[in-house]
Amino acid sequence: MMSDLDINGFLLNASIWALPVLLAITLHEAAHGWAAAKLGDPTARLMGRVTLNPFAHVDLVGTVLIPLALLLMSAPFLFGYAKPVPVNFSRLRNPRRDMALVALAGPASNILLAILGALAFHLVPVLPDTATQWAAEMLQRLVLLNLILAVFNMLPIPPLDGGRILVSILPDWAAWKVARLERAGLFIVIGVLFLLPYFARELGYDFNVTGVLIWAPVDFLMSVIATLTGH
């Protein structure tokens, strides 16, 4: 059983992660819907998905259970997802081009939120002493989580945003083949990022795919944002 100290630490960690998770996932999905509406498809707007109300986007498994499980396991960072925003690509004015723009809107919103979070660090010293540590840790996680989501979603595998962008720019014969990966896409991602490195380590090989595909771009973006925001 968890001791009082463990419970207090868990609740504190949950409070630090809750706002970053909700903001990152909510803005990401709302950005997809907003971009689709601007480009001719009102489906998401008519379904109430172009909103910053997190309850419109919450998925029980992806937004609640997975982050909670990662917290309980003391994972180094949290990850989650929301209900996908419905987009009828046939209603977009220029379906192939606009599909890429709708997909790009999600990661772009995460990078924007990371920049805003980094700027907000300048306000931490003016907060009451009792709030400075909590606010600083929350903002650190806000920046980190949004950059992880942006980079992860730009992997060129459907149904991730990067996969949809890839489909939009490939020739028809290649785009059709890549699009067919959508149903198995998340299993491919899990295999490449987690299972393949795990089995490689068991065999004595250093196969740090996550470091190359996720952490290296995140570190680069972090340094750029730190420079732009005066840190």
Describe the structure.
The protein has about 230 residues and is mainly alpha-helical. It has one domain (about 5-230). The chain has 9 helices and no strands. Helix 1 (about 5-40) packs antiparallel against helix 3. The mean pLDDT is about 85.
Please provide the ordered H/E string of secondary-structure elements: HHHHHHHHH
Strand content: under 5%
Rg of Cα set:
19 Å
**The biggest beta sheet, please?**
none
- Shape verdict: globular
* Multimerization status: single chain
Distance between the termini: 42 Å
Give the rounded overall mean pLDDT. Answer: 87
Q: What helical percentage do the residues reach?
A: 55-70%
Count of structural domains: 1
Q: Which structural class matches the secondary elements?
A: mainly alpha
Uncertain spans: none
Number of strands: 0
Helical segment count: 9
Protein name: Zn-dependent protease (Includes SpoIVFB)
Subcellular location: Cell membrane
GO molecular function: metal ion binding; metallopeptidase activity
Main location: membrane
Compact summary:
With 231 residues, the chain is mostly helical. Helix content is 68%, strand content 0%. Keywords: Cell membrane, Hydrolase, Membrane, Metal-binding, Metalloprotease, Protease, Transmembrane, Transmembrane helix, Zinc.
